[in-house]
Amino acid sequence: MLKFGKVWMIVVLLLVSMPFILPTQQAVACSCMFPETAQEAKNEAAATFTGTVTQIGEDSPKQYENYDVATLSVKQSWSGVSEPEVEVYTSWSSCQFDFEKGKTYLLYPYEHDGRYEVTNCGRSGEVIETNARVMDDLQQLGAGTVFEQSAQEIPSAESSRNRWILPVTLGVSALLVIAAGGWMLLRKRSQ
Fold first, then answer.
1. SS3 sequence, the chain?
2. Whether 38 contacts 141, CB under 8 Å
3. CATH architecture type of domain 38-146
4. How many CB atoms are located within 10 Å of the residue 116 CB?
5. Which residues lie across from 116 on neighbouring strands?
6. What burial class does residue 96 get, using C-beta atoms within 10 Å of its C-beta: 0-12 exposed, 13-18 middle, 19+ buried?
7. 6-29 pLDDT per residue, tens
8. Nearest CA among 116, 122, 102, 89 for reference residue 163
9. Mean of the per-residue pLDDT values of the chain
10. Which residues have a Cβ under 8 Å from the Cβ of 172 and sit 6 or more positions away?
11. What is the pTM of this model?
12. What is the rounded CA–CA span in Å between residue 144 and residue 128?
């Protein structure tokens, strides 16, 4: 019983001392200032556009500074974007904007260190019918510059069929391995 008490005390002391031993990043709470209208948000932003996320990566330009980098195929632009593809950064913090591949967003990014950044504070959001604020913003913004859909984004019937080949092949292979293993086990038991 005495050994267990000593081990428990060492574990508690290690856990309590962790913040002092390990390097930490400064914690900053998310402070939001929410523009009241789409026009106000557009005027304050470095760009205003809708785009579909085609890929999400990571970037760490400085120690303890991490970002998700979303590459978006631009659908429509009202300001700041003249190319069909753009990268937008979001920091790993309480203000992180949660991008998901394949989803379309209305974004009002600001410019920081020569790149676009967006946070979960403000009017940026996913373009879906149930997001009333974004749908209202699109109506307020009116027509913007429309970008053509790139060839890589246009889904083809061939790519839709091919995306199931690998999962089905792996599933069938796994079932065959399980069946063979079961058969070998039964055979071994009967001997």
1. CHHHHHHHHHHHHHHHHHHHHCCCCCCCCCCCCCCCCHHHHHHHCCCEEEEEEEEEEEEEEECCEEEEEEEEEEEEEEECCCCCEEEEEEECCCCECCCCCCCEEEECCEEECCEEECECCCCCEECCCCCHHHHHHHHHHCCCEECCCCCCCCCCHHHHHHCCHHHHHHHHHHHHHHHHHHHHHHHHHHC
2. yes
3. Beta Barrel (2.40)
4. 23
5. 88, 111
6. middle
7. 666 676 666 656 565 655 544 555
8. 102
9. 76
10. none
11. 0.61
12. 18
Q: How many CA atoms does the CB half-sphere of 45 hold within 13 Å? A: 29
Considering only 9-23, 78-92, 133-147, which range has the smallest mean pLDDT?
9-23
Alpha-carbon torsion (60, 61, 67, 70), positive or negative: negative
Band the pLDDT of 53: cuts 50, 70, 90: very high
Do 50 and 106 form a contact (C-beta atoms < 8 A)? Answer: yes
pLDDT tens digits, 161-188: 455 566 666 676 677 778 767 767 777 7
Boundaries of every domain in the chain: 38-146
Q: Which residues contact 34 (CB under 8 A, 6 or more apart)?
A: 121, 122, 123
Amino acid, single-letter form, for residue 71: T
